[in-house]
Amino acid sequence: MKRKLNEHDVPEPTNEGDSSKAAQAKSTFASLGLDSRLLQAVNREKFPAPTPVQAKAIPLALEGKDVLARAKTGSGKTLAYLLPTIHSILQRKSSNKRVKTTSTLILVPTKELATQVTAAVKSFTSFCAQEVRCENITRKEDAAVTKARLTDSPDIVIATPGRAVQWGNSEALKIDELKHLVIDEADLVLSYGYEEDLQSIANSLPTGVQKLMMSATLRTELDTLSALFFSSTAAVAPTILDLSAEEAAEKSTLAQYTVRTAEDEKFLLIYAIFKLQLIKGKVIVFVADIDRCYRVKLFLEQFGIRSCVLNSELPVNSRLHVVEEFNRGVYDIIIAADEGEVIGNEGGKRKKRRAEQEDNVEEEGEDEEQTGDTVLAEARDENEEGDEKPAAPRAAKRQRRSRSDKEYGVSRGIDFRHVTCVLNFDLPTTSKSYTHRIGRTARAGQSGMALSFYVPKELYRKHKPTSIPQCEDDEIVLSKITKKQTEKGTEIKEWALDWSKLEGFRYRLADALRAVTRIAVREARTKELRNELIKSEKLKRHFEENPEDLRHLRHDNESHAVRQQAHLRHVPDYLLPTGGKAAVSKDVGFVGLKRDRENRIRKARAFNKSRGKGRLSKGRGLDPLKSLNAKGRAKK
């Protein structure tokens, strides 16, 4: 503390020092009054200071108030509700350590997000793991196993609303003494059609339960949530936190660009981007549906560009493993199917009219609605609902054939780390979906880029082999996206691209597209699904004992569903434009990564040791019954 001498030459503290120290204290987790064990976990994760949503929501939650918070993607909403709820559990257990009740129920829309929240809970309870138990009941497992995990009344239960109702009705999940109810991504929970399940949960809640609800867009859902969980006769209304003003004041680290392109030129452009490294770093490519995933993957494979797919058809464990390996830097390109858009558009003109009505609601300022809420309402996990009721017979046939997981979500909630660029290969159908897609990059203060391809009306259906119905209204959707982003104070620019420099690549484009047939896509899709089913949890012990076999777990292996053309893998000098890649487009930057590289020397020694070669293969470390002679020395 700064001191100065007064008129009696006695040092005394200055007011400026006190005020500066108080201001500094307000910007730390320690000033929030959290348990010391939680502060240890926060320090270990190296979080310097709470984000705005954390600084505002945590004190309110610690006071026991109900909170409805809206903050942008990547602003730390998960920590904003986890820290105060875990703190409350620890406070209650400090007076009665023998109590065993489920005091916190966290509802999430997707299984991927449930796994991510579970990992966060385990990370921040690492210094009090004996006192706080957490269970995720969204996993696909035997019912007896789930029931056994719930028998001991874990402190925190993480579930989708459907699973919570299912186990609540069977009395395995007891919420009679619930203290906290958390709904993460509340708007998506409602758009997935969980309103009836939420109503059932609301009716079963005991009195005095604290309710915390978080989302990136939470305006049109306020009335629905208030009607479900907050009585109009309640003495205290919930506190609504809207951080739009703070977010608008922050300097944006996300650059947004668009490219006007024909349907077949999308493939030419993505080939040039990755082959010429116009965008460096990790990229998430969003496409419209599952078939589109494999079409783009097979196209890139012919040029030696490795990528992995992510869609609802793959097993949950495989999807989680893809995200985990991508975050570790094993893969640089993920091709993800944003299938909520496609499901929403199935059902013909009636669904199209519904989407138009919802877009009109956006223009009136009520925020964006997810296209096709009715179909999404029926799109549940088969394990939860028992039967599906899609609106259209074609949709029903497609759903039965693909057996996809309807609790899949990749553009919402999942924490993709160090993403350089989000590439919208197929433009989404609503500005709301666009907002959540681009939220996968420029997180936690890092810079990022969003690049979107759009097909003008006059170029639609000009190349039928690569055409999809979703591209018909690209210009209309783009205008609404631009309007919404302008309202937020951000600008979408046209990407500086010289198409004339790419003319030399067009004949290669034709060869590659001709090889990617419908049969090849179907075979690749079937093969990928079969391989991922084989890589199940049952083989976990085998791979732990045989780490060299882990290479078979890679998700970006070539499918070999199309004829390999060796000449396409290399770019000859005569194809390169004058001036190199700089002549095609300017450098858009790079998000630096800190990859977890394994020790090359240690790996080589372990490999030689397993084959009985090298210096370490003799002497200590081997089976003494095989390596020692009568004198007790290694055999020569």
Automatic annotation (TrEMBL):
A Pfam family: DEAD
CDD domains from the UniProt entry: DEADc_DDX56, SF2_C_DEAD
Main subcellular localisation: nucleus
Disordered: region residues: 1-25, 347-407, 602-636
Stretches with biased composition (Acidic residues): 358-371
Basic residues biased stretches: 602-618
GO biological process: one example: gene expression
Protein name per the record: RNA helicase
